[in-house]
Amino acid sequence: MISRTARLCSSAQRFNVRAFSSSLGVRGSELRNDIKVTQGKDDEQLEISVKPIPRINEPLETKRARLLYQSRKRGILESDLLLSRFAAKYLKGMSEEELLEYDRLLDLPDWDIYYWATNNFEITPLKDEWKDSKILKMLQEFSVNRQKEILRMPELKEYK
């Protein structure tokens, strides 16, 4: 099960989390199996677990096209830039096993991927299951941007 976590800092946002939990008709920190509110040191967190859609017998070209789209349309600019450029460079040459690993990585929250890719483990500690990940290591090396390129969203023709 994959967790999506939103940090809520302002009192208005805290109220919204409490209102959200009340609207579900539950009390306490455990809302449902897939939703919970936890109290952090400085803020509350609303954690929603979302199971990825199983894709059985998906053709490799369909998988590549889907992963390309998911790499380009993340929701935050930092992840969009990093993952879209990574996909443009590596996606077409990935093996089936590497595509599956990349697919699992893209199921994670954007900020986790971004902080792990940029080796910022103080903010989001790296989970044990990703410590030996070939794809994450490739993404970490890619994020260094050794050529000091100005980052921009690649044109779709750059993926071919």
Automatic annotation (TrEMBL):
Top-rank taxon of the source lineage equals: Eukaryota
> What's the chief localization of this chain?
mitochondrion
InterPro entries recorded = SDH (IPR005631), SDH_sf (IPR036714), SDHAF2 (IPR028882)
What is the annotated localization of this protein?
Answer: Mitochondrion matrix
Give the HAMAP family listed for this entry: SDHAF2
The family this protein is said to belong to: Belongs to the SDHAF2 family.
Q: Name one GO cellular component term.
A: mitochondrial matrix
Query: Subunit structure of this entry?
Result: Interacts with the flavoprotein subunit within the SDH catalytic dimer.
Would the keyword Signal be found if you checked this record's keyword annotation?
no
Keywords associated with the record: Chaperone, Mitochondrion
What are the leading ranks of the lineage? Eukaryota, Fungi, Dikarya, Ascomycota, Saccharomycotina
Q: What is this protein called?
A: Succinate dehydrogenase assembly factor 2, mitochondrial
Annotated Gene3D superfamilies: Flavinator of succinate dehydrogenase
What Pfam families does the annotation carry?
Sdh5 (PF03937)
The biological process GO terms on file are: mitochondrial electron transport, succinate to ubiquinone; mitochondrial respiratory chain complex II assembly; tricarboxylic acid cycle
Q: Describe the function of this protein.
A: Plays an essential role in the assembly of succinate dehydrogenase (SDH), an enzyme complex (also referred to as respiratory complex II) that is a component of both the tricarboxylic acid (TCA) cycle and the mitochondrial electron transport chain, and which couples the oxidation of succinate to fumarate with the reduction of ubiquinone (coenzyme Q) to ubiquinol. Required for flavinylation (covalent attachment of FAD) of the flavoprotein subunit of the SDH catalytic dimer.
Per the UniProt record, the source organism is: Saccharomycopsis crataegensis
**Does the keyword field hold Acyltransferase?**
no
